[in-house]
Amino acid sequence: MKRKIKIYIALAFSLIVVGASTAVIVASYNAPAVETAIVGAQSSKSDIKLVQQKLKNWGYYTGSVDGIYGSKTKAAVKYFQRRNGLTADGIVGNKTLKAMGITSSMLSGSGSSSTASGYTSSDVKLLARLIYAEARGEPYQGQVAVGAVVLNRVKSSSFPNTISGVIYQPYAFTCVNDGQINLSPNQTALKAAKDAMNGWDPTYGCIYYYNPKVATSSWIYSRKTVVTIGNHVFAV
Amino acid sequence: MEEYKNGNLPSDNESSTEKIREQNAENRLIRQETAKKHREERLEKERSGGSKKKVKNAGWIAAVVTLSVAVAVLGSLLAYNMYSPTGSFASNSVTEQQSFYELVGYVDAMDVNLSKLVVSKDDEKRQKLLGEVRVQSSLATENLSTLAVKDEDKYYTVKFINQVSDFCKYLSEKLIDGETLSESDIKTLKDMHEVNATLKQHLSELSINLDEGYDFKSLLEGKDGDVIISKFKDLETMSTEYPHMIYDGAFSDGTEGKVAKYLEGKEEITKMQAEDIFKEYFSAYSVKNVELVGESVGEAIETYNLEATDGDGVMISAQISKKGGKLVQFNYFKECSDDKIDLATSRDIAEKFLQKVGYTELKAVWTTSGGNVVTINYAGVENGVICYPDLIKVNVCRERGVVSGIEATSYIYNHTERERQTASVSLATARQKVEGEIEIESSRLAIVPKGESAEALAYEFYGKSEGSYYYIFIDAITGKELDIFKVIESTEGTLLA
User: Fold this and answer.
1) pLDDT confidence of residue A46
2) Under a CB-based contact definition with an 8 Å cutoff, are residues B379 and B362 in contact?
3) Which residues contact A123 (CB under 8 A, 6 or more apart)?
4) Which of A7, A55, A163, B43 could pair with B59 as two cysteines, CB 3.0-4.6 Å apart?
5) CA–CA separation, A203 and A147 (whole Å)
6) Which DSSP letter does residue B383 get?
7) B270-322 pLDDT, tens digit each
8) Which of B222, B301, B339 sits opposite A46 (nearest CB)?
9) Do A63 and A55 touch, CB atoms closer than 8 A?
10) How far, in Å, CA of B18 to CA of A93, rounded?
11) What is the interface pTM, i.e. ipTM, of the complex?
12) Whether B407 and A211 lie within 8 Å, measured CB to CB
């Protein structure tokens, strides 16, 4: 009897772990598995100060409220997380903010994305990843332009009607095939994605781009060129 | 993008692909080791002859082994799907099959409903059928886009199905507004049904062919002469027979041939003049090496593209219209890591710059919640009426207090001297309509875009309902509710949806 129970427990345990690991794998396929930092070293001083002030008020932090997310602040965040039943990783994500009683409206926000077109912040991140994977060696204007092409495709009748639909369409982007789409974008790519979503389009409606140095398809040359930026030719 | 590019990417590309390969190899290794362990455990168990203690442990061991095998297999399956070494897609022949047969199914269903639409005379029934076709066509598009056929080989097929969906949306909105379908609407529906029937026929021929032992791997590998790819290529050549569709919708063929109203009648400038304009506009940026790097030949806007570097060598790229020499857009990306300048000052900085580059009569209508770079949206003002189509966006870096970008294409497309309209619905009447929906905090008259190409005079109401803020627009001529926007606070800033 005892043995049976143990096996049952073992099975249940293994199921839970398998379930959890699957979730992690699936999550890492779609998005980073760890909670994304909302307030971190890259954040504005006022946001970091807000976090530091809260931690100081509650006695988790003894340093000065200076708006610098250094090792002392990180240690205080970890201490706070441990005491509040959160994963002590020093990353101030949604859960940690919630536990601190900080809402997103209290933060200055990590950037700018006012748009009337209804794109979500996960779209910004996906677009930034595409820009980083496809055009990180290009001038800033060229990175915005690649983002604009994706959005022009979303608006075009001949392509899927969502950002992810356009990006993951077969044959559309090599970075999806070779896995580079999963690399973390840098600040430049993120800003370029936001600018593209805010309407910056240096290509005036282009839905194609290619590098003439390596382009092999003769079909692509039949499209009308609008502009060349860096290594890329943009066409309609 | 397409396979025709790359090679210009930075050197760490290779190393990251390398990493992925290593990861795959690692997964394989883990799998092999786990299998080995599993074998050893089994042998051990057999040898032990079932002693009670060992068996007790075996439960745990079996569980742990099952779990590690499961994890390794799952991991490697996903990894295989994601980064197949042969360079195939994040998809496999099973999902390809599913996409294909679902596409066939939805095109069939569209056929039935489109034919009913042509016959039906009852508006309620039509409304229902239009709704069904819309859903079926969007699902058809979705499946068609995941099918491993190059986009140039399905360009017009996707376009056709998207247009069906968009046209049905347009008709359904017409019915909701109490209008009836015109003869030409019915004619277009008939044409669409015909094209769809041909598409359906070709797809069903194809699926009959596939019944004879077709392997979807052939599609994934993009083999020459693959029946599915060939069929879609054939369909593209038929596209000349597709109806030319003009209606007030996003995918209407009529939206081609856009004009830039603001540039009409303006004189063309020379390259030299463009350079001078650039130098003047960016005089405060201590620019060096001003250079004309190219031209953009857009459908309605043609520009000279100039570049220069600031004192620190950071690039400023600007596009100046050939007609009229207007600054259409510019970008100046420089690290911006503080927000010491407040929003009001940022607005002053933006307005001073707009004045300098010749954009006047504007009002700030929308600002993001902040951050180190703030985006301020300006709309034109005519006779005290806000003109939303004439939109200019300005980025200001709050660390250095400089304008770091401008985007004025909407303004250039739409700004023109408008005929003065007078509201036929009073503010009080419009207000009554909105009062039950939100607690109004402010109201004003505005010109807003209506459909894809028209504009309407409207009353704008801003207010709160259950803790959220909304903008509601009431047509000042018809009194109908034109649009409603919700203000969404997100970690990325404030959004209008």
Assistant:
1) 75
2) yes
3) A163, A164, A197
4) A7
5) 10
6) T
7) 999 999 999 999 999 999 999 999 999 998 999 999 999 998 999 999 999 99
8) B339
9) no
10) 31
11) 0.72
12) no
Within a domain: residue B111? yes
Q: Output Rg (C-alpha) for chain B, integer angstroms.
A: 30
For tokens 């790819």, the residue is B229
How many beta carbons lie within 10 A of that of residue A65, not counting itself? 18
CATH of A45-106, one of 1.10.101.10, 1.10.357.10, 3.90.230.10, 3.40.50.300: 1.10.101.10
Mean pLDDT of chain B: 81
Q: Which chain A residues have a beta carbon less than 8 Å from that of B149?
A: 170
User: Cα–Cα distance between B295 and B277 in angstroms, integer?
Assistant: 16
CA–CA distance, B407 with B415 (Å, rounded to integer): 14
Does any CB of chain B come closer than 8 Å to the CB of residue A118? yes
Asked if B494 lies within 8 A of A114 by C-beta distance, the reply is yes
Q: Out of B485, B491, B496, name the one closest to residue A110 (CB).
A: B491
pLDDT tens by residue, B376-413: 999 999 999 999 999 999 999 989 999 999 999 999 99
Find out whether B447 and B412 touch, Cβ atoms under 8 Å: no
Please name the residue that has the structure tokens 């690991």: A21
Fold for domain A121-235?
A: Arc Repressor Mutant, subunit A (1.10.10)
Interface of B with A in 418-457 (CB under 8 A): none
State pTM to two decimals.
Answer: 0.68
**Per residue in B109-136, pLDDT tens?**
999 999 999 999 999 999 999 999 999 9
Which residues are CB-neighbours of B182 under 8 A, at least 6 positions away?
Answer: none
What is d(CA A143, CA B315) in angstroms, rounded to the nearest whole number? 13
Q: Which tens digit of pLDDT belongs to each residue from B120-177?
A: 999 999 999 999 999 999 999 989 988 889 888 899 999 999 999 999 999 998 998 8
Position A231: which residue type? N
Same domain, B104 and B250: yes
